Amino acid sequence: xxxxxLILIASVFSLLLFSPFAVCSDKTKHLFFIExxxxxxxVQYDLRLTENDDILDSNPVAVYWILPNGRQRDLxxxxxxFAYGIDSYEKVEKNKLRLVLxxxxxxxxxxxxxxxxxxxxxxxNGKTSVLERVYVETEEKPVGLPRVLYIDLFGRxxxxxxPINERIVPQ
Length: 171
Hints:
This protein is mainly beta and 171 residues long. The protein has helices at residues 2-17, 77-84; strands at residues 27-36, 42-49, 61-66, 72-74, 86-93, 96-101, 109-114, 117-124, 127-139, 147-157, 163-168.
């Protein structure tokens, strides 16, 4: 009976640990995600909010994997520092955040509330746009980091809500 109780407790704990809400205990709002050519794993970017729906001052963006089976995993150190992490962030105003991704260091993203919901704003094809998703095409190498062939940004123009995209080819 004691063994059964231990197994039951461990099972419940593992379900909580890998639930869709296990990334952080704070309220979150999905901002955008990155898809990759390598596999079906997604990198999700969520804004962390206070109980009053304000942007948290410390670690305001949660970045994590969503696996094809729906489970979530943290990025490892290499993924965070060299591929998908946050390079820097700065709180510009109470509910306005400027962040720079490791993968897109030359394009700042402004996170702000638009029509009652937080959005990631970035220049796509020279137009101020709401970022919805990013696609990364890579060439895998037997040794070392993969080579990025191109990055596609997808979103909607902020002004009219029209679909927009841009392909970035690294030099």
